[in-house]
Design brief:
Elements lengths: L1 H14 L1 H9 L9 H4 L3 H13 L13 H15 L2 E3 L24 H17 L5 H26 L27 H15 L14 H21 L21 H16 L13 H10 L7 E5 L10 H5 L14 E3 L1 H4 L37 H6 E2 L4 E2 L2 E2 L5 E6 L4 E6 L32 E2 L20 E5 H14 L3 H14 L12 H11 L6 H7 L3 H4 L12 E9 L10 E7 L20 H6 L10
Parallel strand pairs: 7-11
Antiparallel strand pairs: 1-3, 2-10, 4-9, 5-6, 7-8, 11-12
């Protein structure tokens, strides 16, 4: 019967060929969207843009639930290994908690499939979008160009100069692939391209008030950051004993261009700051809670400029699940992966302006300092510490965190303390009181802090957000006004505008609890520390050290260099009956984190990531990076 139907249909077509051709052979498919349909439908274009925004390169811990355990754990190890933290999570190989030497392929990126897709989209809008208004075409085109400029920034900060491909590369099947082989641009040319793209598109972007799609100020924030990076490389790379460069300029920027780049960074920053569109978040009267909310609060937050948001149940992330404080985790399958270091904690100054080293021993080092309450050692610290790190004596989700390593029991026979630590967590000493807290720290147990600290920044305070069934929708902040103030302050300082620089830096410090005009003089080291404490765990630390050309000095692989090691702080309850001044008080011991086994070693070859050999094999015009 089916064969008979087919032959009848064919015969009908032969008799009525014109009708068949019109009505059947050229019938529009119902399940395939044609180019003309896609590029004339704003909803379809927005959906495509959403995919492109989701593909922007990140090096964060906030991955959606579809990325899989291996992918998210790899990202979080990066956060631990390249920021002021260490890995305290589960590991079958304890050596993976450290990276003795960073590989030359670390941070490598060569995502030209993304560039290709953006270029194709730009061509399709120009060719097919006949039903869009001029304003719609301008906005969508500007957004695509922003995404491309952002991606080129992610490429250049890792690789140096890369091929600047702004149109489709189409193979003509002639047997000659050389037209597709684009050489690397100079490093400065890529930064110049980013600046020129921002200038060209910023007024066409629209999306006013939107934080998950680019608007004018998002583009200016990109320019602010990128130009600051370029200025720093131009200045500090050329101050090295042997500047890192290639003969063709693929790596290295002339020192003569530093002032130009710093000026562009400052101008872009001023435009954002003076616009009145954004303000530093100052809603909560508690400065520590206020700083935490400045990053995590979505409603009424006018500090945030651009974010990667997680808005649907199908697109949430596991960051809180895998990094929640051990003692308050809501199931038994994850916690405590990325744990901040004592190094970072001591970077936060005291509010009187004194250095942030915690006071654990008396003046002549003959005895401990005894604290009545476990949190007293952190009294009068920069409020950003509280907003970033969970430390002993604080709470989270309204619950005490229970951070105590053990007890110091006085041994009269030895005239010294015996250090007693539990073999497990949440244990009790012979006096019926806590031995080791539910949140450690512990020297060897996994998924509990090895440093004595936990993350607060980016950890979701909502109920059940650290369970497998309910993931977090806390957003990842790409740009916020706090960074722009710091960019402006650094650029102004480098241009000799110290008064203006102090205005920006002091505004950031005042929010953290310091008095108005707390600084009257400024140094680069001071600016570097302000960035360290303000932007901790926001994916800045590594790139800042690289652009200032100090990563190889701080992380030099030397066990005697405290900057190359990760330090911990272990609190102990004192058991000393008969001594009212000491018994029941708390003392603290600083140490190298027990599971941190080797110093960080950043080599000169890490300033620019190596280019994969397969890329070079396919394109002989690609120049290798130095030390590759």
């Amino acid at each position: 019967m089916q064969k008979t139907y087919k032959y009848l249909l064919m015969g009908l077509c032969l008799l009525t060929a014109g009708a068949c051709k019109k009505d059947w052979l050229e019938r529009q498919p119902r399940t395939i969207l044609l180019e003309e349909q896609v590029w004339n439908d704003p909803k379809q274009i927005v959906a495509l843009l959403a995919n492109f925004y989701d593909r922007l390169p990140t090096q964060t811990g906030l991955q959606d639930i579809n990325d899989g355990a291996d992918g998210r754990i790899a990202q979080w190890r990066d956060m631990a290994n390249f920021d002021d933290a260490m890995w305290s999570g589960q590991s079958n190989e304890d050596g993976r908690n450290n990276i003795p030497a960073y590989g030359f392929d670390s941070w490598r990126l060569w995502n030209y499939s993304f560039i290709r897709d953006i270029n194709l989209a730009l061509d399709n809008i120009a060719q097919y979008a006949v039903k869009l208004t001029d304003e719609q075409k301008k906005q969508f085109t500007a957004e695509l160009r922003f995404l491309r400029a952002y991606d080129y920034f992610e490429l250049v900060k890792r690789m140096g100069g890369v091929p600047l491909v702004t149109q489709q590369l189409v193979y003509d099947y002639s047997g000659d692939a050389t037209p597709l082989q684009v050489p690397r641009a100079k490093e400065e040319e890529v930064y110049d391209f980013i600046a020129s793209e921002v200038d060209a598109i910023k007024d066409d972007l629209g999306n006013d008030g939107n934080v998950s799609r680019a608007n004018k100020y998002t583009a200016l924030a990109l320019k602010s950051r990128a130009m600051l990076y370029a200025g720093s490389i131009a200045k500090y790379n050329n101050q090295m004993p042997a500047p890192i460069s290639t003969p063709g300029g693929e790596v290295g920027i002339p020192a003569s261009r530093a002032t130009e780049y710093y000026t562009k960074a400052l101008e872009a920053s001023r435009e954002i700051i003076n616009s009145g569109v954004y303000t530093l978040y100052k809603v909560n009267p508690d400065p520590g809670e206020n700083f935490y909310e400045a990053i995590t609060k979505k409603s009424g937050n006018r500090e945030v400029i651009f974010v990667k948001d997680f808005l649907t149940p199908q697109k949430r992330h596991w960051f809180s699940y895998d990094n929640i404080v051990r003692g308050i985790r809501e199931d038994n399958l994850g916690s405590s992966s990325v744990t901040p270091s004592l190094n970072l904690v001591e970077s936060y100054e005291y509010l009187d302006g004194s250095a942030g080293a915690l006071k654990t021993r008396n003046a002549d080092n003959s005895d401990y300092i005894y604290y009545t309450n476990i949190q007293d050692i952190f009294t009068n610290k920069d409020a950003r510490l509280y907003g970033t790190v969970i430390y002993p004596g604080t709470t989270f989700k309204g619950l005490p965190v229970g951070i105590q390593a053990g007890v110091m029991a006085w041994n009269a026979g030895r005239n010294a303390y015996d250090v007693i630590e539990g073999s497990d967590l949440n244990t009790t000493y012979t006096d019926g009181k806590t031995l080791t807290g539910a949140s450690g720290p512990h020297r060897s147990i996994q998924e509990v802090s090895n440093t004595g600290f936990y993350l607060r920044k980016y950890i979701d305070p909502g109920a059940r957000t650290s369970t497998r069934g309910i993931q977090s929708d806390i957003w990842w902040v790409w740009f916020r006004l706090g960074e722009i103030y710091l960019n402006a302050g650094e650029a102004a300082f480098e241009l000799g505008l110290t008064g203006e620089a102090l205005t920006y830096i002091n505004a950031i410090r005042e929010r953290a609890g310091f008095g108005p005009n707390s600084l009257t003089t400024l140094t680069l080291a001071r600016i570097q520390n302000e960035r360290r404490v303000e932007l901790a765990f926001e994916n800045h630390r590594l790139w800042d050290l690289k652009r200032w050309r100090i990563a190889d000095k701080l992380w030099n692989g030397n066990v005697g260099n405290p900057n190359a090691m990760i330090y911990a702080l272990y609190p102990y309850r004192v058991v000393r009956p008969g001594d009212a001044a000491r018994n029941g008080k708390y003392v603290f011991v600083k140490m190298i984190a027990p599971r941190f086994r080797a110093p960080r070693f950043f080599q000169l070859g890490n300033y620019y990531s190596s280019i994969d050999q397969a890329v070079i094999n396919n394109n002989p015009k690609i120049v290798k990076n130095p030390f590759q």
